[in-house]
User: Which sequence fits this backbone?
């Protein structure tokens, strides 16, 4: 009976420490854009941006900042990939007018990416244009 209590306490401690380690996981990266992309109606010019996300997934809240100024905030899906990304990078889609829309942010050194729901953003833009 005493060994059962000790085993339960050790298991509980392991869960607490692993949760603390996950909570301390770094949910921010620096992203270097080499071309202009649009996200949530905002234009991101080439340059260095800080990307942070909050939430445990699959839906997270993403904030993109440049310097101390927040540029945009939006929802994304935290997705797992088969292999780690070699570096921080973005995915984009070319629109009919030639502009590029951000579709994903790939997190360097991890098997994670932030996937944007562009169909929802496109519906919002279309609804705004038709008003």
Assistant:
């Amino acid at each position: 009976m005493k060994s059962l209590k000790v085993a339960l306490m050790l298991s509980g401690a392991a869960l607490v420490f692993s949760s603390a380690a996950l909570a301390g996981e770094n949910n921010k990266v620096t992203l270097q854009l080499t071309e202009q992309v649009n996200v949530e109606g905002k234009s991101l010019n080439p340059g260095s941006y800080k990307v942070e996300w909050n939430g445990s997934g699959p839906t997270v809240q993403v904030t993109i900042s440049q310097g101390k100024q927040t540029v945009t905030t939006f929802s994304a899906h935290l997705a797992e990939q088969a292999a780690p990304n070699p570096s921080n990078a973005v995915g984009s889609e070319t629109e009919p007018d030639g502009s590029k829309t951000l579709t994903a942010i790939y997190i360097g050194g991890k098997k994670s990416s932030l996937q944007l729901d562009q169909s929802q953003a496109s519906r919002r833009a279309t609804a705004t244009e038709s008003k």
